[in-house]
Design goal:
Elements: H1 2-16, E1 35-45, H2 48-53, H3 57-76, E2 80-82, H4 86-90, H5 101-108, E3 113-121, E4 126-135, E5 141-150, H6 154-169
Parallel strand pairs: 1-2, 1-3
Antiparallel strand pairs: 3-4, 4-5
Helix pairs in contact: 3-6
Length: 173
C-alpha cells in the first residue's frame, strides 16, 4: 500500500511539472494600455468538495476580491476597462474557453482587448490562477499566464494574481 501511495505521489508531481509555479509569457512585448472588456474570473472546482457541499460563500467573495485586485492593477497600468453586456455573457459558460466569443464581444464594443481569467480549485491546498489577454480584432492571445498557489485564502489569491500580472503578463523580455 505504501508503494502504491509513493507511485501516486510521483505521478502527481510529474503531472504538476518540475517548474510548478509560473508559466512563461507569450513572446513579444507586454500589451500596451488600451481599452479592454474585463470578463472577470471563472471558477472551476475540480475538487470533490464543491460537488458534495455546494458553492462556498467565502470562495465567492474571494473571487470577487481577486477580480477587483486585477481590475485595479490593470487600471493603474493605464487600461480602460469596460463591462461586457450581461445578456451576452450569460450565454457563455466560461469566457476563457468560449471559442472566440470574448473577442467578438470586445470587438463589437470597440475595445482593443478581451481579458478574462480562471481559478481552478484542485483542493483547498492547490489552486491554479489563469489570466488571458486577447486581441479583440484577431482573437489571438496577446499574453496568458498561470500560477499555482498554495492555500485557499484571500492573501494567496491576492499575491498570486499580483505575481501573475507583474512577472508574467506584463514582464518585458
Amino acid at each position: 500500500m505504501a508503494f502504491l501511495r509513493l507511485i501516486l505521489i510521483v505521478c502527481a508531481a510529474a503531472l504538476a511539472g518540475a517548474g510548478t509555479g509560473a508559466a512563461q509569457p507569450a513572446h513579444g512585448s507586454a500589451p500596451s494600455p488600451d481599452s479592454a472588456v474585463w470578463f472577470g474570473l471563472h471558477f472551476i472546482d475540480t475538487s470533490t468538495e464543491g460537488a458534495i457541499n455546494g458553492v462556498r460563500e467565502d470562495e465567492t467573495r474571494r473571487i470577487e476580491m481577486a477580480e477587483t485586485v486585477i481590475a485595479e492593477d490593470l487600471r493603474s497600468r493605464g487600461f480602460t476597462l469596460l463591462n461586457p453586456p450581461a445578456d451576452q455573457v450569460a450565454r457563455i459558460k466560461n469566457p476563457t474557453q468560449s471559442n472566440g466569443s470574448d473577442s467578438r464581444i470586445a470587438r463589437d464594443m470597440g475595445a482593443h482587448y478581451a481579458i478574462s481569467g480562471e481559478v481552478q480549485k484542485v483542493s483547498n491546498l492547490i489552486l491554479s490562477l489563469n489570466l488571458y489577454i486577447r486581441d479583440a480584432e484577431s482573437g489571438d492571445t496577446v499574453r496568458a499566464g498561470v500560477v499555482d498557489i498554495r492555500g485557499n485564502t484571500d492573501e494567496s489569491f491576492r499575491r498570486g494574481y499580483l505575481y501573475l500580472l507583474k512577472n508574467i503578463i506584463f514582464r518585458e523580455e
